[in-house]
Amino acid sequence: MDWNLLITQLLNGLQLGLLLFLLASGLTLIFGIMDFINLSHGSFYMIGAYFCGSVVARSGSFLAGVLFGLVGMFAVGALVEWFIARKLYRSDHLDHVLVTFGLILIFDTLVHLIWGAAGMAIPLPDVLNGQITLGSLVFPVYRTLIIVAGLLVAAILFVLVTKTRLGMLIRAGASNRSMVEALGININRLFLFVFALGAAMAGLAGMLIAPITEASIGMGNDIIIVAFVVVIVGGIGSVKGAFYAALILGLIDTMSRSYLDVVLNLAMPVTYAETAAPALSAMLIYILMAAVLAFRPQGLFPPAGMK
Amino acid sequence: MNWLPQTISGRVYTAVLLILAPAPFVFEWINQPFYLDLLSRALILAIAVVSLNLILGFGGMVSLGHAAYIGIGAYSVGIPSYYDYYNGWLHLGLALSISAAFAFVTGAISLRTKGVYFIMITMAFSQMVYFTFLSLEEYGADDGLVIYSRSEFPEWLSMDGSTSLYYWIFGLLLLSLLFVRRLVHARFGRVIVGSKFNEQRMQALGFNTYRYRLVCYMISAMMCSLAGMLLGNFTGFISPDMIGWARSGELIFMVIIGGAGTFFGPLVGTIAFVLLEEFLSLITVYWHLIFGVMLVALVLFGKGGIDGWLSLLDRKRAGNG
Fold this sequence. Notes:
The complex is a heterodimer.
Chain A (H helix, E strand, L loop, with lengths): L2 H32 L6 H19 L2 H22 L9 H23 L10 H4 L1 E4 L2 E4 H23 L1 H11 L1 H6 L4 H27 L6 H15 L4 H27 L4 H26 L12
Antiparallel strand pairs in A: 1-2
Chain B lengths: L7 H13 L2 H7 L3 H26 L8 H16 L5 H23 L4 H21 L9 E2 L15 H24 L1 H11 L1 H6 L4 H27 L1 E2 L6 H14 L6 H19 L3 H14 L4 H16 L1
Antiparallel strand pairs in B: 1-2
Helix pairs in contact in B: 3-7, 3-10, 3-11, 3-12, 4-5, 4-6, 4-10, 5-10, 7-8, 7-10, 8-10, 11-12, 11-14, 12-13
């Protein structure tokens, strides 16, 4: 067995998991606190990448791109909450699905209008383009940075949610919204902040991945579905659940893509294994979600106080 | 004028059906085969939308995965044809039985959940179907599969030629509309509609609502697979792209434009959607923007869809008269 490949794949899985966490943590809070399904959360991921790319193209600094992107996405999130989402918290979920589906169309076309149909490559500074060599193991610097940044944001979010007054309100909101309201908290401001924070984190995920894949229209539309799977598996409203579920799903997805054919080969001939493996590995996370929904609908790590 | 339908909506729908019935001859007469294609596509989708409306509009089951059944229907034509089995009854039988079986298994699991969870789990199952077809290299994977010849039926039922295919589509659409109407007015439908509004009460009345919903979900899936079977025959080309979750979102959009939980709403909603899509995309490449704004506006301001607006006219008239 190739141990270097295994470790590289584990790191790739960790990277995917952390990106999913950046998307899913905002999604799960919006879902849990406002009871709002935001299909267009993936658009924030895309717009973040374009914001960052535009600034990098003008300033040449990746850091400036990320900082500007974060502020920009916070503003975009706040605008969407203020003008659209706020009006829908009391409607049913079907309305959420429809409106946010409409928002996806709007955002995709706006990006097309502003930046054109072609993708946007984001160049990295030379420092980040190298490789880290550890014995016989070689891993790109930039991917390491994604992992470090993801862990850092996760840590900051944990402190924010578990140690601050704001976090207390957020957790309380996820468990029992009307009680928070009854205690005289300005719930509108809390909602606005949570929505904007979620948008900024989704945008950050887009900014981090874009130098590898380049920014493109509709880039968020596939990953958002996986982020929803993370939210459901982790338990709606639970940041901790989103973290574990994101890592689990990221690792399952990456590892099954590289090793499932080997595993299946133990039970069936090579030709069958090679046909079945890609299909099964793409389906695994959905199978996991269906199993969780069927047997433990509240998710694996539901927030405290939820029924 | 007693033979005229009494309501405005009734008149509009009668007019729509009267326009649709002779469409192939009209378009042949004015030599515009393109419009017949457009209309055929719209009516195929309308069958799928009618089937979705049965569970979404009447049953309150918001499925974000209904496109999966279009895919199952289409591949029931595509895969046998790949092996030179063109028998139409075989295609039809496969479409109906596989979609029923898939709906039984996935519905049995999905219907244990409610609300958001149901939306997400139906989406998850349709993604599984999507990835299955995406990975079937033998049948073209993401490049899709070309169907070289239409399903073969006895002479009098032949699908060959765009006029015969149109009447296949129109006929199945009429059957679906009548069937849903009959079903909803029957005891079965009453239970379905009743459990949308108050499931506990229906259970207290002694109905096993879970079973009713499961059967309803299977019926809807089978109807939708008919649309897929027709679509495969119509386009002669099928690909996993027909199954993606955005397709399912569009189907919901069409139900809502027409009016959820109404009998003719899905038909006019789908026609409106397809025509708008066609003509807006002629005007500008940015037509999705207009679509998106419409969708947001429809939910925020225009409750009830086309059917709702028409009945609003009726009520105004009744108020004045």
